[in-house]
Design goal:
Beta Polymerase, domain 2, homodimer, globular, five-stranded mixed sheet, alpha+beta, Alpha-Beta Plaits, 456 residues, Poly(a)-polymerase, middle domain
Chain lengths: 456, 456
Amino acid sequence: MRTPLEQSILIQIRPEKADRDRILAVARRLVAAVDQSGIAEGMVVGSVARDTWLNGDRDLDVFMLFDPSLPRVELEEKGLTLARSIASVYGKRYQEKYAEHPYINALVDGLDVDLVPCYRVASPHQIQSAVDRTPFHTRYISERIGPYTDDVLLLKQFAKTGGYYGSDQMTEGFAGYLCELLIYQYKGFTPLLEAASRWKRYTVIDIEKIAEKEFEDPLVVIDPVDPKRNVAASVSAAQKFSFVEMARGYLERPSAGFFTLMEEPPLPQEEFAEILADRGTFLYCILLRTPSLIPDIVVPQLRKSMAALQGLLERNGFVVNRSDYCMQERLSMMVFELLVDRLPTVHRHAGPPVWERDNALKFLTKERPHLYAGPFIEDGIYVVEIARRHTSARTLLSSSEILETGLGKHVKLSLEEGWEVREGTDCWQEDFSSFLGGFLKKLSPLTRIRKMEGEE
Amino acid sequence: MRTPLEQSILIQIRPEKADRDRILAVARRLVAAVDQSGIAEGMVVGSVARDTWLNGDRDLDVFMLFDPSLPRVELEEKGLTLARSIASVYGKRYQEKYAEHPYINALVDGLDVDLVPCYRVASPHQIQSAVDRTPFHTRYISERIGPYTDDVLLLKQFAKTGGYYGSDQMTEGFAGYLCELLIYQYKGFTPLLEAASRWKRYTVIDIEKIAEKEFEDPLVVIDPVDPKRNVAASVSAAQKFSFVEMARGYLERPSAGFFTLMEEPPLPQEEFAEILADRGTFLYCILLRTPSLIPDIVVPQLRKSMAALQGLLERNGFVVNRSDYCMQERLSMMVFELLVDRLPTVHRHAGPPVWERDNALKFLTKERPHLYAGPFIEDGIYVVEIARRHTSARTLLSSSEILETGLGKHVKLSLEEGWEVREGTDCWQEDFSSFLGGFLKKLSPLTRIRKMEGEE
């Protein structure tokens, strides 16, 4: 029933036997180590546990299930101690990381292993933090996904190509668990695509018919183990419809391109300058030191900060065409493409309505250094024309006003150390050149795939 | 009870005895002429009939009341014939004019006389056109306004100073009849100002408690002779609150300035250029031949056309700070002050939502000469970046696209003959220099009065 194309793709994306054996051996070894501690129970979760990992994936999640009577502080303490001792015995190097609570990330036999302490609760109703839910997900999927593991692999690779695989905040996309649930709901890759190609603005999927809550997200997939949770909460409308678009395109004319990862090639500075000149827009970027935290924490803060700065620009009259952000190891960039970067001195400032007598009087008699016009009355509202605080986007972005917007916490801390504003072709920088190329030549996933095919 | 200030003002604004006698004599003579025709009855209406005209006013309205059984076409024919014969006997020169229906405007003894045919209906419910209502207004006011004629004079002069006297479309303000009703409602000039100083966003005055309809206008004064009509329908929020503002200012510190007409002085070209440079904005104007119709018809069309062109500018990305218009004998001007008059080539064009499958497919496969970016997906909507049609406000305002906006009928006909676009200091023209000065240095009436006082 698989097409020859899908068969050939599966050969590439299924884990190779040697790899598979090695990963499973490491998994078994680490679980045994947790069990032998006597204080916790080991459990492999994630795609390795469900046999739905893609060839080349090097991620292994081992959970350490502790007794739920243990106080939270002790769980963290004992959990980290155990994880550290296991990591130091089996791993090459390890580091402490922090999501909802701390865990250990270790390099073991070339695998990127997360050792995560959690509570061994009897039912999902009793979970104390999000990680306690994961073992239930693994059990739910493991019991059902057997016939569809190849379909899950195809979907994951498809979503990776489209740039919306992963529930991390960077991609806002389809988590592995979500891929598995979608495949299970529609019983296969092709039936899912057929359904998705007809998805409307809002889609609700409730496999176990247990929903206890209404969601406003563009895609709602009720968690079979937690009726109050939307597994697809992180999927943005843009990502949902990138999937819908690719589903339509694939059904119409399938090709290997739908499973072929294409990194945005770095954009040379010259070409960057040409594109920018062609567009005629005013590009500004802010460079800041990347906060030393995991992307799952930094990226949403960058997104929030970018939106806050876009708001600041627009409130000051600078029209933003598009904005984006990119987190890299050392530096992060927020980029703003403006249609207008210089404005006249005159700035209209609306005061109170004339019918609010006390406010109107205060406004009228206020001392002002210089008025260009007014006070005058428009639609019953007092207006004065005063000097604009920032007549150029550069002075605005360079001013401390940006620190008073709704920035993410750690992004704000980083900006307080300083930031750099660049303009036009100076925004180009080697390590951001792929990002900037993708930004300026922005395409939907299907358009990018078809374009690649056309160029071949 | 009159303050010495008000007494001294009244001496200036009450018609002089000689003038008064002359006007009343002309009025009597014309009414007698209508009566003698045997086909209609003469009646003086307007401020002369009510003894509420200002010194220097030269307007006299004589209505010719015909039998309501006369067909409309005959009314116009016979009415114009009679008016012409009277005008040619008593007047120096005359011309036919047209509002809701035709009438004769004649110069008689230095007075600007309108001879208007209408129906002599038994009650306001039977009126066939707006002019039939006028005799009822005159009767209503004449029977009541006696004790308050001085108050009406003060209010009219006060409103003239503020620039909102007259119901014509140019001023959008307070008609004579409205002034009379307001004075009658509050029993005097000062009590009216005290009430107005506390007016809220919406004000409803219903002297006879007969309202049969709700209005959304900022000021509603139910016509005592027609419960479905708002006498203040032409009063804009800006004008209502100009009056409110002046009322507060006068009560706080009365002065002759509130009754002293101040023409905006012509602004010399040099000073105009200085102000413009100081503001830093981009001024554009459109000059067109003034349609040969009365201001009451042309002015609302200019206002509508200006709003339509402002919309066109804004839809094309050119940010408008303010706009205004000015009708003069030969030429009319619409002026637009822009914050942005040049824009980059790139123009974002939103397409259909991805979930509208057929439209989405058509959009995706549409042939386009050149795309700067896209199609990409934002919030589930397809977007492409294409070449902007107009990258400068001048080419937009010079293009035939302006003829496809919601222009007033006769303004459109005039523009179809051609128009001139001017920019920056070239907008200056001798006969529009007062208008342009008032536009650039826009002030509320009270601010203007206080400023004059400060300069004295």
